Amino acid sequence: MSSMSERLLRVGLLVLLVVGVAVPGAAAAEEPETDLGHHGEVVYEKGGRLALRMRTWNHGPVSLDSAAVRVSFSAPVEGSFPAACRRAGAAVLVCETGALRAGAVSPRPLSFDLRVAGTPAETVVEVRTVRLGAGEVRPVTRDLNPDNDRQRVLAPATGDTYYF
């Protein structure tokens, strides 16, 4: 090897040491990844009764100590909702999921028995993940597929079951 080639090789190695080398999987160690999905059913009846039952699936690959889900309604609601949920407005609840193992569903469903104010002919229910991991202000866990953790269901007051 010529001395010029040796110098170029040494400079190249030095640059790699100083700048760093991208190692496959290194980003995953710094930013764990998971994939949450929310699935359930909505029944809305004449007279304004709304029943909602849902579970959160953690498709993995990382387990979570908790996550928060926001459930929004197109009109104010009253009634019973799980103890894991807190009001964030007249038509918004935020619910903790509890621990979510990778590849598993939440251990208990979130069940709501509500009344919609004004008894409209239809209502819209929106479900969305708002936090991955307990107490994090800015999540460090990334959702691999954020499309399936946002659901929007239009439920006419027919008493039919609408799945999401």
Q: Determine Rg (CA atoms, Å).
A: 23 Å
**First-last Cα distance:** 65 Å
In DSSP terms (H or I, runs of 4 or more residues), the helix count works out at 2
Overall mean pLDDT stands at 83
Q: Given the helix and strand composition, which structural class is it?
A: mainly beta
| Secondary-structure element pattern, one letter each | HHEEEEEEEEEEEEE
Total E-strand runs: 13
- Residue stretches low in confidence (pLDDT < 50, at least 5 long) are 11-29
Percent of residues in helices: 10-25%
Tell the overall outline: elongated
User: What amount of the residues lies in strands?
Assistant: over 45%
The major sheet is characterized as: 6 strands, antiparallel
Describe the structure.
- Helix content is 13%, strand content 45%.
- The chain has helices at residues 3-19, 26-30, and strands spanning 33-34, 36-44, 49-58, 67-73, 77-80, 85-89, 92-96, 104-105, 110-116, 122-132, 142-143, 150-156, 161-163.
- The strands form 3 sheets. Strands 2, 3, 5, 8, 9 and 13 form a 6-stranded antiparallel beta sheet that branches. The chain has a 5-stranded antiparallel beta sheet with strand order 6-7-4-10-12, with no helix packed on it. A two-stranded parallel ribbon has the order 1-11.
- The longest helix is centred in the N-terminal third of the chain and has 17 residues, at 3-19.
- The radius of gyration is 23 Å and the shape is elongated.
- Mean pLDDT is 83; it is low at 11-29.
